Amino acid sequence: MSLTREQLDGFWQDGYLVIRGLLDIDNVERWRDRLAEIVSGEAERSKRMLVMKDVMVAKGAVEPSHDLEAIAKVQDYEGDPVLDTYAHDPRVLEVIQSLIGDEVMSIHTMLINKPPNVDGRHPLHQDLLYFPFRPADKIAASWTALEPVTRANGCLVAVPGTHREPLRRHGRPDWEYVNVAYLGAVGADALLERRVHLEMEPGDTVFFHPLLLHGSGRNRTSAFRRAISAHYANVEVTWEWAGGDLKRPYRIVTGPRKGELWSGHHNTETPINPLDYLADSVEEMLRVGESNYSRADSPD
Length: 300
Ligand SMILES: O=C(O)CCC(=O)C(=O)O
Known about the structure:
four-stranded antiparallel beta sheet, alpha+beta, 16 strands, Jelly Rolls
């Protein structure tokens, strides 16, 4: 699907664009079923796949009544023949290409499962924190709802226009239970009032910029809230992090080099130290903004 001028302008103005009904219910059901098969062991896990337990389950604070209720996400699903059809879906890729250019690679993949009964919040953050590539304008995410996502079950929230701001430092929220690597942007609470709740139907897809402040609230329902996502970068990006590479394959997914691994330019002269963007202690987080991550200030 090629984007209209209005949709393109909307993306660059707000930092995100929701496309209703981009993917159909057959796909959605297949991806949901696959999650269940992976978690039950019916489907073999692909080589690099990471299945992450929710922190409350891991710490024994919640006793799940079913295996699926224990899982927070499946990460790096490349190699899974069913989930990976998402990262290669031509409808997703066409939009991505309109946003960041024709030749793109997949740089991160995830299926996020927000079960009932756990906290499951994701503080406001910028995904660029996790990516070694620059410029940010050549990176974009797609995130597709796998069931109705609402304010009640912890839909995504976004703060429009924040993609024009620099990458912030990120730290651990002071919530009691925080899933591994769910870091929050320091000082972002001040912008919570401007957040927009992105309620979506199954198959609806939001595309967003890696500097956009976004997060998600608790699931207060008795059902799951699942979504599948992928991040992409134009192959012309530069690797900007200091200290070699992450030894992970970045696969080109469009154009004449489709299927090949990225082997682009590395900046070795003025690299970025990714640790500079991490708040390294609670004291420091408190100094920067009294209580940046209080319970009342969650993205629900
Ligand atoms: O799906 C969610 O709840 C949040 C996902 C997200 O923001 C992320 O993984 O960067």
